[in-house]
Fold:
Amino acid sequence: MTDMAESESDVSTDVSALPMLSHSVSYTSIQKPPFVVSVIGSGNWGTTVAKIIAENTRENPLLFEQKVRMWVYEEEFEGSNLSDIINTEHVNKKYLPGIKLPDNLVAVPDLLEAVQYSNILIFNIPHQHLEKILSQLRGNIDPRARAISCLKGLRVNLDGVELLPDIIQDALGIHCGVLAGANLAQEVAEQRFSETTVGYPLPADYKPGDVDHTVLYTLFHRPYFHVHVIEDIAGISCAGALKNIIAISVGFVEGLEWGDNAKAAMLRRGLLEMIKFGRKFFPGCLVSSFTEESAGVADLFTTCTGGRNFKLAKIMAQTGKSAHEVEKEILNGQSAQGLITAKEIHELIKNKGCEEEFPLFETTYQILFHGVRIGILPYMLENKWSISKPNYSS
Amino acid sequence: MTDMAESESDVSTDVSALPMLSHSVSYTSIQKPPFVVSVIGSGNWGTTVAKIIAENTRENPLLFEQKVRMWVYEEEFEGSNLSDIINTEHVNKKYLPGIKLPDNLVAVPDLLEAVQYSNILIFNIPHQHLEKILSQLRGNIDPRARAISCLKGLRVNLDGVELLPDIIQDALGIHCGVLAGANLAQEVAEQRFSETTVGYPLPADYKPGDVDHTVLYTLFHRPYFHVHVIEDIAGISCAGALKNIIAISVGFVEGLEWGDNAKAAMLRRGLLEMIKFGRKFFPGCLVSSFTEESAGVADLFTTCTGGRNFKLAKIMAQTGKSAHEVEKEILNGQSAQGLITAKEIHELIKNKGCEEEFPLFETTYQILFHGVRIGILPYMLENKWSISKPNYSS
Structure:
């Protein structure tokens, strides 16, 4: 891997006709347009985001290098390499079948080749692969690059909460933001109207010409995909993780047929606990990120009206089966993220002695893992749940 | 109508066993407990709220006179007077069949008799009957009484917006708050878990012992009906009216099968326009009333997942029929409140020259009444909707 021109000769003939990286690149230069963008990950959301980006780089040649490289974990699909399929047929047949991709989007199976000379790295891989990818990238990227994480969730342990963009930032030494919203990948890929939120505080070493809110807006916004750029990474990240617990509580209520009022009540109480959690563990995060952003209230709305967590809880309530039984029987071995998050959050808030501030999260955990009956939820939400501390009020 | 003891002799034998008003009453006394409570209106929501109140007055005899009078617009049902049915069978067979009412809830067909000596008046009648009821009450109530309006909506005209509690207050000279939330009446009546919001700023002539947030909480809160008391009447009222326009926009998107992302986007954008509208016409109203209260985000969630406005818009989108055709054919002559509100709000914001600040409301109006196609919504939400003012941004 020496320079882009050589590395590209390995790719299919279709791709060889693409524009080469047109500006002079150097690891020590100040960030300035046109920016070179790489997407790390090519699942259904990764490919969808890469499609959006490639549409925008083509329309904004002064701001972006048109060619967008997408790292593909190479695998065989119907007798061919997935990267070859993407580069010749311009469809990710395995993870996003039926969606035509722009021909300036190039699949690259070599991770380091995919990111070489990039100024903007978009992370879009499953959470559990992050460590490995980061260790491969360490020392092999432009140290002045900027990053956006499209990964879901938080890293929670007994002592606290880490944001995934901070983990990326700490591992690679590059400034990292986040993108999240009410974004079912298939709908976005089909160009059905959606909105999203990008969280990106300007870095301490920001200088004019560097990646800023306008650059990110231009990179992600499409007529069918509306972008709002804010500064609050923590609020977006907390909302994205905690929504799954709330979807479970709403699913319980749905399964017991308590009605629309009760579902709305769970959603509302969940939203308040989200905000309380965010503000407790990340004092700088903003209430409006939860209440006014696509990554907040809109994503919560979507998550609480369907999806795996909602469905698992609904079936638990209908059948009386345990969470793990339902997960095994109904979800075909797929895990419901809300189960893991509910447990992690319980362990954290118990360790911190603040379970009583989060009666919805805590009661949902107790129902999921300790056979507490769902009917106790309204009682818990009145903050009468702790017999040992009867005078508690939030 | 001379005093309570005489008037009660007209009511059925069951009721004669009820406790009489037990404290000395006078129109000139300072407000103090026990408070006498009357409910004006006995539709399904009126009867449901009266049921809640009667449950609470019975449990809190030091704070409230146990007997709760509910004014019933007298009509015949299955050969009997509705008030007699309620007082003998303790069921409102016409408007809330199948729900047992507490026997300390007494139906009174005479409006002035129903409110005599009352300290707390709960208004729960259809919007269109308000003027007439107010003119009958004027001069015939305790001038120191306090009121809560459970009526929906706003009074909108070309020059501005009036809050219904203010209309009650101006007509009767009594301080008036509001109660609203994600409250489908039937679910509350069946004691399925719900939440609500009460808006009640303390009046200027408040003195200790008067109706306050604790009194109102105790009057309305039940284990199955959780109450949050705040001060912001305007926020609650605006949310209650404007949600119906948003439900129409979500219904359009549902009818065109744009998917969950788009529905969440409409809800979110609608929420933002609600807030903007509230703050514009009532600068003192709080963002949190919209984003954190049952009367705000929770009621919006419920309204946008079902109900008459959502359904009307969905069918319009599916069939291409006009709003009025759908209203006539599908809703059995019932009106969709969102249609009226969309038109009233359009006329107001047009008159004020601020349509461009409310692209969702305005575009929804244009689709409803002027045959604009639904597909233009995303474009409108990018604030490119006005050709004459291309540089507009919100």
User: Anything to note?
Assistant: The domain at 10-231 of chain B is CATH 3.40.50.720 (Rossmann fold).
